[in-house]
Design brief:
Number of strands: 22
Order of helices and strands: HEEEEEEEHHEEEEEEEEEEEEEEE
Number of helices: 3
Largest sheet: 6 strands, antiparallel, barrel
Structural class: alpha+beta
Helix content: 25-40%
Strand content: 35-45%
Radius of gyration: 51 Å
Amino acid sequence: MKKRVSSSKDGTGFEPNAAPTIGLLLALFLVALGAACSSDSVKGAPPQGDPAIPVKILVAQAVPISDTTEYVATLKSRDSAIIMPQVEGQITEIRVHSGDRVSPGTVLMQIDPTKQQATVNSQEHGRAAQEANLAYAQQQYDRISALAAAGVVSRQELDQAKSALDTAQAQLKSLDAQVQEQQVQLHYYRVTAPSTGIVGDVPVHVGDRVTTTTMLTSVDKPGSLEAYVYIPVERSSQLEMNMPVQIVNGSGELIADSRLSFISPQVDNTTQTVLIKSRIANNEDRLRNLQFIRARVIWGMHQGPVVPVIAVSRVGGQYFVFVAEDQNGKLVAHQKPLRIGEMTGNDYVVLDGIKPGDKIIVSGVQFLVDGATVSPQG
């Protein structure tokens, strides 16, 4: 007898447990399809645009600006004396040190006077001999004058005696002048200070042989100085007496105010410059003779814009600033090159690149690019 085997399939041909699995797969497919459509719709949506960058804006104003030029100047003292010997010889004594304060007539150095002293002694002995000759000529003249009055000697002998006396007197005067000259020359072997001041560097030593071109030292009197400035000949026509001149240090800080006191009528043939001078009061002794310093010549005044230092950037040696300009109803930052001049306080003087009324961006510059939209704050 055959055993009947029952079928596990229904009329659809699928197993009963397979229906839930099919439904789950269908649901996942629909979810994926919806996500794909949603993604396509987002990609097709129009962009909303970049947000405006908040910045601080300052309107450029025209302010009075000094038209100035800085030059390297040399300070020189009118009361500074370079000490050089007036005679040749060997230094036997140096009585001062650098930095000593001296008064007029103070002995600074001694040059060996032995040879000159011998010359003076010889001249004095010659004068003594001539004094004896003059005394003899005087006696002869007196004797012959008495004899001539008595008629014993002729007029000719009297004239000869008178001539001998005159010659002896003239020779004595000549020797007196020579002795005095040699004594003055002897005085030069003692080097003295010409005025009150401070002894400078002493480059010579005892035993050195010096000539009339040897620098022994200097004596500087504290006080006013003169700034020697050389101006290019192209600008010499703009020079006027009493023009303002400012003395500044390396950081641009003002040291002293002055006025133009001298304009050279000649042009230096080598440098094609014109020498000008300005007197400087040095009451606090902040400046020194022969010191290099900066002299700022003020040519005049003009109106021009300035920009804060924090608004200026420098790229490859060129200065730039961002200016906010209206474009389609919004503010857009544009980078503009600048040609700047001197600093006045915390601002640069602008020679070219912007004009009064331009909107200068002074904050948030590091976040800007050319064409970025900005929004004024504060």
